[in-house]
Amino acid sequence: MDKNYKEQLIKKYLNNQCTEEELEEVAELFKKADNDSELLEIFGASLESSSTEIEITEEHNQEIWNKIKDNTQPVKTPTSKTVKFYSKSFFRVASIVLLVLCATYFLSNLLKEKPIEVQKPVISYHTEECKLGKKSKLTLPDGSVAYMNAGTKITYPSKFEGNTRQISLSGEAFFDIVRDEKKPFIIESNNVYTKVLGTSFNLSYYENEAFELTLVTGKVKVSTDTNHKKDSVVILPNHQVSFNEKTGSLATKKVDVTPYTSWKEGKLVLKGDLATVTKKIERWYNKKIVLEKGLEKCSIDATYKNQHINNVIKGLAFILELQYTINGDTIYLKGKGC
Q1: Domains of the chain listed by start with CATH number
Q2: Using CA atoms in the order 19, 116, 52, 9, what is the torsion angle rounded to 10 degrees?
């Protein structure tokens, strides 16, 4: 740093005109004040021309005087009597000591009043939503991919910081996770936590429906504890874990993964009671289905690929011997019951 720049910097500091970056530079200069004669000269000249007032306490006065005495010697007269009169070096030493102490004074106040703060990166969060009647694909910041089914929301950070990669899910998605053993991938779904390193699986947890995770490759750990230390299970490929909200327990079983993952290829798999499968149809086609009382427990097992909703409803009506009426976006089903 050249002399002219030092002069300008000191003058700006004494007149309270420094930017945050310049204040940091001043702090660094003051730290080396006692070994920088040029800086002491500049500081003294700037101080004389500045209107800044310096408050030196009695304690500072004593410290200055002690340092001056330690660095000077009395001058003896020809009669060998000691006289309290000091040479020119006395004043030079005094001025240097004073400037060093002033620099220390300014530095302590600078650091106290203007602490240097480390700016933490601001992490923003995004929510990706797949509308009813649609399918979509989401690539996450680490390169992992989520294939989103209708009516699904995924919230994720702009960048995965820290020791984990965490997102939240509401709905259904098939995940293909990039492997990173030092940074596990965690999915939070209404207080159920899925922890993986690198794997592929289907996760479904719509509001008011059961949690189901079906593993295709790799290994996953599912827990109801954020620390994954209790109430957890580990599953391997071709297994499924479900969560019972009433009991708060997790259960596992071996399954054929195809019915749980084929929705990605446009296959609508309807298996279970009518109350459950009609919810899936509603999301798939973005329609409203009204069941006549008594039909909720009727069981169905059928698969449709890339079919219009009219064909799906006709198939259900034929299998279960139902009558249906379509009024705009609402479909009414009625029959004898099961």
Answers
A1: 3-113 (no CATH), 125-260 (2.60.120.1440), 266-335 (3.55.50.30)
A2: -50
The 10 Å Cβ neighbour count of residue 90 is 17
Task: Note every long-range contact of 320-326, with CB atoms under 8 Å and residues 24 or more positions apart, other chains counting.
Answer: 320/274, 320/295, 322/295
Contact between residue 231 and residue 207 where contact means Cβ atoms under 8 Å apart: no
pLDDT in tens, 185-240: 999 998 899 999 889 999 999 998 989 999 999 999 999 877 656 688 999 999 99
Q: How many residues does the chain have?
A: 338
Query: What pTM did the predictor assign?
Result: 0.64
Query: Contact, 163 vs 181, CB < 8 A?
Result: no
Instruction: Tell me the three state secondary structure of residue 67.
Output: helix
C-alpha to C-alpha distance for 163 and 136, rounded to whole angstroms: 28
Give the mean pLDDT of the chain: 80
User: Residue 170 in 3-state DSSP?
Assistant: strand
- Provide long-range contacts, Cβ within 8 A and 24+ apart, for 84-91: none
Supply the angle between the helices 20-31 and 3-14 in degrees, to the nearest 10.
110
Residue 336 pLDDT more than 70? Answer: yes
Three-state secondary structure call for residue 120: coil
Q: What is the pLDDT of residues 29-84, one digit of tens each?
A: 766 655 666 666 666 666 556 554 444 455 544 554 454 445 444 444 444 444 34
Q: Of the candidates 238, 242, 233, which has an alpha carbon nearest to the alpha carbon of residue 254?
A: 238
pLDDT surpassing 90 at residue 97: no
Helix (H) or strand (E) holding 315: helix 309-320
